[in-house]
Amino acid sequence: MRARIWGCRGSLATPGRETLRYGGNTSCVQIELNDGSCVILDAGTGIRGLGLELVADHSPIPPIHICLTHLHLDHIEGLGFFAPIWQQGAEVHVWGPPSATRTLEERIARYLSAPLFPVELVEIPARLVFHDAPTDTWEIGG
After folding, report:
1. Strands 2-7 and 28-32, sheet pairing
2. Are residues 66 and 72 in contact, defined by beta-carbon separation less than 8 angstroms?
3. Which of 35, 39, 107, 112 is the most exposed place for a label (fewest CB within 10 A)?
4. What is the 3-state secondary structure (H, E, C) of 64-80?
5. pTM of the prediction?
6. pLDDT tens-digit series, residues 26-67
7. b/e string for 118-129 if b means 16 or more Cβ within 10 A?
8. Pick from 66, 128, 63, 51: which is nearest to 97 by CA?
């Protein structure tokens, strides 16, 4: 297993020379499992750079699992700028906290729609699969 932190800032991204040492992106951690599975914890602004790296060699992208700890903006604001979701044929599983009133897909669609975002969730070419995170333990990639 290998972990890489792409962002660890709080509510607001703080790019600039003074944040080079510790980074200025909001929450995003990549975990590469031993079987090659890609698990991403949160989709803050750090997910943009991660996504560009994942598509850089133009090879097929294995299924990706994004686990959202909660839906505050600093944990989802990079989702629309994650390059793999713009790849036809890519499969991205989004796991998030359950709600008694709206599905995870409906809650994410509120953010990825006008007037907050220029593209509607249903227009994204990748196959997005939304899952309520179980309250007990579960496995991704063994």
Report:
1. antiparallel
2. no
3. 35
4. EEEECCCCCHHHHCCHH
5. 0.93
6. 999 999 998 888 999 999 999 999 999 999 988 888 899 999
7. eeebeebebebe
8. 66
